[in-house]
Amino acid sequence: MKKSVNIDEKIGATKFFVDEEYAHLKIKSPEVCHNCLSKPCLNFCPAGVYRFSDNKLVVSYQACLECGSCRVGCPFMNIHWDYPRGGFGVSYKFG
Description:
Blueprint: H1 7-12, E1 15-17, E2 25-27, H2 30-35, H3 41-44, E3 50-53, E4 56-59, H4 69-73, E5 79-81, E6 89-91
Antiparallel strand pairs: 1-6, 2-5, 3-4
C-alpha cells in the first residue's frame, strides 16, 4: 500500500532558485489590500506566500510554487503574477 504524503512533505522536497533581482509576485496597490476585509490571499496560497504583518501585506515570493492561484484568488485582481525569469523559480522533485 502506498504511503500518503501531506502537502508539507511535498513542499519540503521542492527546490527554489530565488531571483534576488526580480520579484515575480507584486502587490499592485497596497491600499487595496489594506482596505480588503476578507483578505482571501492569506488562505488560498498553498505555500503561505502571503501574510499580513505590521498592518501591511507581505509577499514572500521566494517560496512561490507557481500554481497561479493568486492570479485568480484576489477579488480585486491586485496581485501581479508572472513566471520567474529563466533559470529561477521552483524545481519540483517527483517520486
